[in-house]
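Reading a protein record of the kind used here takes only a little practice. These numbers are not coordinates but entries in a learned vocabulary of local backbone shapes. Here is one such record, which you should read through line by line.
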Amino acid sequence: MAGAEPPAASEPPAAPRPVGRSERAGQDATGRVATGSRGARESAAASERVDPGAAVRYVAIITDGNGRWARARGVPVNEGHEAGADTVKARLRDAVELGIKELTVYSFSTENWSRSPVEVQGLFEMFSRRIAGETPELHAEGVRMRFIGRRERIPENLVEQMRWAEELTAANHTITLFVAFNYGGRAEIVDAARRFAAKRMAQAAEGRRAGSPARNCDEEEFRRCLYAPEMHDPDLIIRTSGERRLSNYLLWQSAYSELVFRDELWPDFTRAALEQSLAEFSARRRRFGGR
């Protein structure tokens, strides 16, 4: 394996994040909403509007706006990605408190390879460092980690770290964090179709040898060929930064997801913004094709 081995679960977590990132989102240094801050007041107000009887269990987020956040502050783009990663960790902890069981975040798409090599390399380095430093901490909190997407072109040491984090946290049940990395919705469907076709061909050959007819296939059988067959379809997909599209995200799984679009750039997405998104979901009526 290239690069350093991931640390054992007993090693200390990564160094504390730079001062100021969390505070910009109305949080303290642990990622919690700071007491007495504007974020805390907004969070409390939003909490009163969330209907616990219409709880959201499965949420996916398009974490958009890190680059614009960095440009607005005159800092390198990878500083924006660092701030965005801080926000993922903080909102993950909020999701646990709000009863969410699965959180999926869009970290790097198959289209993001078109960005500058400096930005892509910085993302990979940040991702590797955070997996190594933060996985033991998340493991202690009961987080199960899963990475979805293609492994081609990703550095081997990073692939090994992903496997290590998945294996270490596999038995956890507090919440599952799905990280979409080198992910594209169309790519997932194409890859699933290839696996599905190979599986059906093998079944057909076995059926011919046994003299039995081929079985009919259904959506559930195809679903088992997706990157993470155990993932539930998201109840809610949130996109930040004011853009209003899915951008090749969870195309199979989002068939009946509710969509909420927020104007905040991702590093500025507070707990209050998350709770407001959940409240908007709760106010809707989901029909699934019925009346």
